[in-house]
Design goal:
Blueprint lengths: L1 H18 L3 H11 L11 H15 L4 H18 L6 E3 H5 L8 E7 L4 H8 L5 E6 L5 E11 L4 E11 L3 H4 L13 H11 L2
Parallel strand pairs: 2-5
Antiparallel strand pairs: 1-2, 3-4, 4-5
Helix pairs in contact: 1-2, 1-3, 4-8
């Protein structure tokens, strides 16, 4: 059973890195590609992260650190622009498993859920509003936009998830390994400084 989960994770990790898929869709596609029963137990996120890190180490060790730093700098730019809305970076860019195909996920914790959207409109930013599942399993509004990374020379998807101001406490609970699941601008700056040559 565990070997099947490991095989699914390894196949999904390749899709995450080479195609920029999110973990959930990559796991489901890996099951199909491997010809397994659609009800096969999927690897948990810890196993997925381990497989993604192994894939990066084996196949992308020369390019991924630079791509990750570029994505973190772009995320920090948006976090600074959106500072009044208490931005926190999450996802692969925060965890350190992102490549140039990864999107940036920023959670905003607002007193007024429409205030971030109004700020984007005021600054002439084109975005698409959608509803997604938030970190607590509830539906949240998300504002998705495209932002060019000068370092990577391409457009990167930036997704702003709008949460209530009081949700910030639950957002900072450590994951199963005791790590923070997201970080504020100061934490992102520290990551960039730590990874600087």
């Amino acid at each position: 059973m565990d070997s099947v989960k490991s095989e699914i994770a390894a196949t999904a990790a390749r899709m995450v890195i080479e195609e920029g898929l999110e973990w959930g869709p990559a796991k489901r596609r890996a099951v199909k590609q491997l010809g397994l029963n659609s009800r096969s137990p999927l690897p948990d996120n810890d196993l997925m992260e381990e497989a993604v890190r192994e894939y990066i180490e084996l196949f992308c060790a020369d390019t991924q650190p630079g791509e990750l730093a570029a994505l973190r700098r772009l995320a920090l730019t948006w976090m600074e622009r959106l500072a009044p809305f208490r931005p926190y970076l999450g996802g692969a860019v925060w965890r350190g498993t992102a490549t140039r195909l990864s999107d940036i996920y920023i959670q905003l914790f607002c007193d007024d859920p429409k205030s971030a959207e109004i700020a984007l409109i005021d600054h002439g930013v084109d975005y698409e509003a959608r509803t997604i599942t938030g970190f607590n399993g509830e539906t949240v509004d998300a504002l998705s936009l495209s932002s060019v990374s000068p370092e990577l020379g391409e457009a990167i998807g930036v997704h702003l998830m709008i949460h209530d101001h009081d949700d910030v406490r639950g957002a900072l609970k450590p994951d199963t390994r005791g790590r923070p699941p997201r970080g504020d601008a100061a934490a992102v700056r520290a990551l960039l400084q730590d990874s600087a040559p």
